[in-house]
Structures are given as structure tokens and as C-alpha cells.
Write the C-alpha cells for this entry.
Amino acid sequence: MEFLNVHFDPRQQALYILDQTLLPGQERQIRLETQEEMVEAIRSLRVRGAPAIGICAAYCLYVLARDIPDSDPEAFLSRLSAHAAALKAARPTAVNLGWAVDRGLRSAQACRERGRGEMLEALYRTAVEIQEDDAAKCKAISELGLSLIRDGDGVLTHCNAGPLATSRYGTALGPILLGTERGMTFHVFADETRPLLQGARLTSYELQRAGVDVRLICDSAASTVMKNGWVQACFVGCDRVAANGDTANKIGTSAVAILARYYGIPFYVLGPTSTIDLACPDGACIPIEERGEEELRSLWYEKPMVLPEVKCYNPAFDVTDHSLITAIITEKGICRPPYGPALAALCKEAHEGKKGTSAPGENFLHL
Ligand code: MRU
């Protein structure tokens, strides 16, 4: 099952995204042409999910670069940096956004001597590479994740970390989709994920369409399904993993992890190595996006559900303490505690593009 969540049409030379705010009711592609449209699309979650916003932003940078008239490399790069800064500021928590934009910027800087045409070519190639790599990484993550569950298992997931948030398969939903393709059966409990309902609108939609047995629950029913013995594993995505394994993901994820620990259920975080931020020593350093009050007051209701004078607090992400995470599954392997050395070794390998040189030790399983 593939979604054209981020799609660059080479014939038209145009960037399209699937507007995820309209799902599941409407599948509409919208074209992104200006910096304002791009920042708005990322900020309002028309395109969302850590890897997908990185992929989208890499194409955005290319599209914006084409409109920079300067042939002088320094002037070109200075305008490009301004676009890059605006894109990176659109959402603060997912590290993939800055990672992808910086990678595009570096690719252009690396061929500044060869002029504007070459810089554009490098930006385009980088975006395509990021997108293609992500599809390969998701497949690898899905294989590894699948090795952690058994046919017939119940799996609980929070938010949406499926194909809409990434490329094919996704991260947290990848093992389920891959296993289903191979004839396995899983029983998935999808938290609805207040307040933006990514679980209800996106996860249940993706899984239902793929023929998976999915059941939507309100976030507060997670404890009940775990207590009933219906959940053998929790799979969630991630927006940023700190060097010690603390992990930021959609608000409510840490509550799932605490419940899973209480009921003795393994809690797995799945994500590409581009989501690991070794520059962040622990979760306290991860910037947490705060969103508007209207998402709580009125967004899904015919009339406001809160008195206007009531104050609201709407953090979009929370940090799950590393001590609650059973394993972190990346395209390079499965990390188990202690996460510090395992993540450092894994990132070294991802950076160098090779495997097995850094003696990562017992807590790291190579692909
Ligand atoms: O606010 P969102 O919908 O972008 O939040 C998305 C999540 O929290 C996902 O779990 C995360 O980005 C991982 S997507 C593979």
C-alpha cells in the first residue's frame, strides 16, 4: 500500500503533498510553490510525521532554490540559507526536519564552485536520495520489528507512524504491514491520539485499507486493553531520540510506556537513525512544540467545549524516559539498554555507511 504523501512530479517539476488534514474523508493532493505555503503545510500538519516532513522540506528547498535568480554562488547560498532557516523553524521537535534541510544545504555548498545549475542539481538529488533512503530504512525497520512479535499478537500503537508519516511501510506500523503482506495476523489497538486524532484519522485508515484487524480506542482505554491481556507489544514512532535514549513522540506516548511497564508489556520505539540526535544529551534538551488552544477548545466540535475563560495547555509531544523503553529499532539494528553506547555506535555506523566496525557490544543487534 503506497500513499503519495510527498511527491515530486519531474514532468511538471512540481511538488505535491497529500493534505493529511482532510483524511480520512478526502484524498486531495495540493501543490506547494511558495515558502509561505510550505511552512504553513508543515505547521498545520498537512504533511506530518518526522521522516515525511524531512523529505518534504528537502524538496521544498529545491523548489525554492529554483526561484533564486542570483548566479553569484555566495548570493545564491545566502538566500538559500534564509529559506532553510524558515523551513527548519516550522516545527521544532522532529529532528528530521533540520537534518534534511541541513543535508540539502550542505550538498549545495559543496558544489558552490561549479555554479547555480550544479547547486540546483545537488539539491534535487539530495531530496530524491532522502526519500529513497527512507523507503529502504522503513523496510529494514519493519523486518527487525517483525522479529519481535508473533503471529496472532495484539499490538498497541499511538499517533501515526505508518506510510503517511514516512515512505512505504512506515516505522511503528511497518512490522504489522509487512507481516500482514506475508499472511500473518495481528490485532492492533490504535489510540485515537488526542487532540489531533492521528490515530483515528490516519492509523486506523491505513491499517483498515491494508486489511489489518484494527480497533480504535480512546487514549484512556489503553490501560483496559493491556489489563485484559490483549496487548503483547507496544510499537510507537519517534520525533527525536536523545543520546541517552530518552525519546520524544506524540503527546501521550509516555503514558503508554508507563502503562506498558506496569503491565509487563514490551514497549518498542521504531525510527530511522536520522531521528537520533546525539547533540541532545537527554530528553530535557528536546524542544517540545506547543500548539494552539483551539485544538482543545473547538477543533472537532460543532460548538466550543470549554468556557472561553478556561486556560489551556497543549504540548504536542512528550518525552518517554529511556528506562521505560524495551528497545529502539532502527534500520541499522535493534538497540537495547544501556542506550548511550549503543546509540553512539549505531550513529557512527550510519554516518560512515557501513556495518560492524565499532564493536557496539551486547546491547546492539546488527541487521
Ligand atoms: O504531530 P505529528 O502528527 O507530526 O506527530 C507525529 C508523531 O508523533 C510520530 O509518531 C513520529 O513523527 C514518527 S513518524 C514515523
Q: What stands out?
A: The chain has two domains: 6-137, 144-366. The radius of gyration is 20 Å. The domain at 6-137 is CATH 1.20.120.420 (Four Helix Bundle (Hemerythrin (Met), subunit A)).
